[in-house]
Design brief:
rod-shaped, about 5% helix, about 575 residues, about 60% strand, mainly beta, 39-stranded mixed β-sheet
Amino acid sequence: MKKRLLLLLALTSIYLQAQTTYTYTGNGYWGNAANWSPSYPGTTIVAGDTVIINGNVVEVDIINAGHLTISSSGSITTGINSGISNTGTLINEGALIATEFGGFSAFISTSGTLSNTGTITIGLGSSVDVTGSLINTGVIEIQSVANLFFSQNATIENSGTGIINNNGSFNTAATFTNMATINNVATLTNTGVFTNAQQLNISGTFTNTGTFTNNQLLNISGMFTNNGTFVNVQTIENTGAFVNNDQKTATNNGTFNNTNSVTNNGIFVNPLTLNNTGTFVNNATLENTSLFNNTGTLTIAATGTMLNLGTYTNEGTITNNGTITNNGTLNNPLLFTNNGNYTNNNIFNNTGTLNCNGAFTNTIAFSNVGIINIETQGTLTVSQTINNQPTGSITNAGTVTTLALGTLNNFGTFSNTNATFTNAGTVVNNTNANFEVTDNTSMHLFRNQATFTNHGTLTLTLASSPSNTNTGTINNTGVFDIPNNFPFTFPNQGTIANHGVFTINTDLINDGVFLNTNEFNGSYRGSGSFANEGIIMGGYIVIRDFGLLTNTGTINTTSIGMSFD
């Protein structure tokens, strides 16, 4: 037993003697033995040995399999076409510099552990490759034409007071969590998993082809290009350019403030808050499920679609050349130009101007207190209710169609000029409202196929065309004026019930039912039924074929006659 104990103590003594600590002081080359204590360790630091650098060492070309520490008063500068290969532990509390000499580059390669609380400088033409682990709470400077690379299996942590300043090329394929500060003024490329948990400043270019998640603050004053998966959970301040490319997904679960440029060529989803005061161009798929505030310019390209399931407020300019579907709330207090397809399935508050040279389909009730201009190639299809309020104005130079279940309720101004208006549903022109149809070309038409009720002022100034007809019901309790002169005629094949003032400067051709209980001014010809319970003044009355005139009121006309064709 005593012999075994003596043997164990002897082996332990030999092992402890094999673990040597070497200290460098002074200034000079690595191979200057006079600067070493207790002796020169050579260019390979073996496992178990420790090297401490308290001085300034230049032209270093070594392999570290042990423990290398650069103290706060020390520095290491790599040599020509050489550097440090670290498979052990490298701790930098001072300065670690990889830089070229006379056009010859240098390197630091670490598959072991690298811990930096000092400054690592990657000089012109040099590189640092990390395939092991890096913990940085100091400063890493990447100079012009220099490269920092994190491999796929590397473990990276930038935390505390850590700062990475990139003026060269920074490439990461690792799972990397930034818990400190990164300033990128050159090129940063992520092909791995990059999580920003503190502050990332991009004044250069950042290209993501892996997975990028922002959990804190991302400042973009340069360009951020997403070719992978992008998720924002906290805050993005974009004063530069953000590009989301083909078939790629960018999801905003935080706050995205854009004051310059966003281009979406893939899928952009906004489940939280997107504030745009700059330019946002959507060439593909844009989906808003929460809050999208636009005080800048939003453009939906011809290839683009926008689905709104949340609240979109436009206090700037929106131009749609593609497709917009509103299933949420769309507020337009400024300018909305629709050259594509706009379908409103929920709440649309227009207090500004909507210029429509495309298709506007309304499938649910909405109120207009602003301006709607249906331009030459534009269409407005009313399949539910549009309430055009007293301050509202609808101007049609294209095509307006009210479908069977649709209602156009006008309290303001509706103007139809050289355009097509077809009512197959319900139109109500309310008291003090104005509904005016003008056609100077004979190329357009006014057709009432259902119910048109006028309590305000209805003016039809129509060129002679057999397509301008009433085959439905017109109920007038206001002012109904047709100011055209002969040879224009207005054919009625349905029912006109006048309980107000109806004035026509030419002939009313009635092959349906005409009821006058108040005042009719004009001439009448027809084979239909004419029942007068009010006053008929001016013009003439001609009863054609098997037409019928029933009078219980007053008729003051130049002549009354009959005609048989």
